[in-house]
């Protein structure tokens, strides 16, 4: 994998703001228990909306947020005006919540020049930088060829095959209560518990308010469960917060990282798959 650092600061974004290849994407989605839909829309100027839930996900799937097809993604990013020379910066209005999922999605489809704005919109506003209340109009371009990079994605079969592999770390981003089966899952019909031999790193522990924790703190968290040489598969409820862990691990040099796309929404719903509590 390319080892380019995945985070960009507000100062770094300002430095490239006039670059004609910059594509700025607001990748905000609702949380399970919170929404910004009734809030006044505030955006970094020149933003487009990146639709994780409907355009970048397979809406015909019974599972939430699973990746769309290569063809659909190629057509969608052409509608956004994204081309092979684009510098893609994704952010969200929460801080760092859903933007890592957008970052990971572009990585899965072979993009290298994609970055997450650390701190998101709150960091931008915290530096007294201007905001607007509307997205810009898209400038459609010719679809480019994209390919699925399987180094970034895991399936249920992949996970099942490595449950006893000592070189692989399966890491669950859900809360400790959900991980241990002490709290019911928010989605109906999903069992409680976790994937056997999985580790629990609650995604909120990776965050320092609106930002990722410092590299030193992230390193301490991951050192407690493995080394950079291990292979990592990140899971959560539906692939959103697992992407936060993937971003954090990648940012400190853990480059064999995958997100289990179906996550617990798939694993917990299948009675044929083993669980622990």
UniProtKB/TrEMBL annotation:
Pfam families named in the record: Rhodanese
Keyword Transferase appears in the UniProt entry: yes
Ranges of residues in domain Rhodanese: 18-133, 164-276
Superkingdom of source: Bacteria
GO MF annotation list: thiosulfate-cyanide sulfurtransferase activity
Gene3D superfamilies, per the entry: Rhodanese-like domain
UniProt keyword terms in alphabetical order: Repeat, Transferase
Keyword hit for Zinc: no
UniProt-listed InterPro entries: Rhodanese-like_dom, Rhodanese-like_dom_sf, Thiosulphate_STrfase_CS, TST/MPST-like
Protein name as it appears in the record: Sulfurtransferase
Gene source species: Weeksella virosa (strain ATCC 43766 / DSM 16922 / JCM 21250 / CCUG 30538 / CDC 9751 / IAM 14551 / NBRC 16016 / NCTC 11634 / CL345/78)
């Amino acid at each position: 994998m390319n080892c380019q650092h995945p985070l960009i600061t507000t100062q770094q974004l300002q430095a490239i703001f006039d670059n004609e290849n910059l594509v700025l994407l607001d990748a905000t989605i609702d949380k399970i228990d919170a929404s910004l839909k009734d809030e006044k829309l505030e955006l970094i100027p020149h933003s487009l909306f990146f639709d994780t839930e409907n355009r970048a996900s397979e809406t015909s799937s019974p599972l939430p947020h699973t990746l769309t097809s290569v063809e659909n993604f190629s057509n969608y990013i052409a509608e956004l005006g994204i081309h092979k020379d684009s510098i893609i910066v994704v952010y969200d209005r929460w801080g760092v919540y859903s933007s890592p999922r957008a970052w990971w999605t572009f990585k899965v489809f072979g993009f290298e020049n994609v970055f997450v704005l650390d701190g998101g919109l709150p960091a931008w506003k915290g530096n007294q930088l201007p905001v607007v209340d509307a997205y810009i109009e898209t400038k459609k371009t010719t679809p480019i060829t994209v390919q699925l990079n399987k180094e970034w994605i895991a399936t249920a079969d992949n996970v099942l095959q490595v449950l006893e592999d000592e070189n692989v770390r399966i890491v669950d981003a859900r809360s400790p209560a959900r991980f241990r089966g002490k709290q019911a899952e928010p989605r109906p019909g999903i069992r409680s518990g976790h994937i056997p031999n999985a580790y629990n790193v609650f995604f909120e522990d990776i965050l320092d308010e609106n930002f990722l924790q410092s590299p030193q703190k992230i390193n301490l968290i991951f050192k407690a469960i493995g080394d950079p040489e291990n292979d990592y598969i990140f899971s959560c409820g539906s692939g959103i917060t697992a992407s936060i862990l993937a971003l954090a691990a990648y940012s400190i040099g853990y480059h064999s990282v995958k997100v289990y796309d179906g996550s617990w929404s798939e694993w917990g719903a299948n009675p044929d798959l083993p669980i622990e509590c």
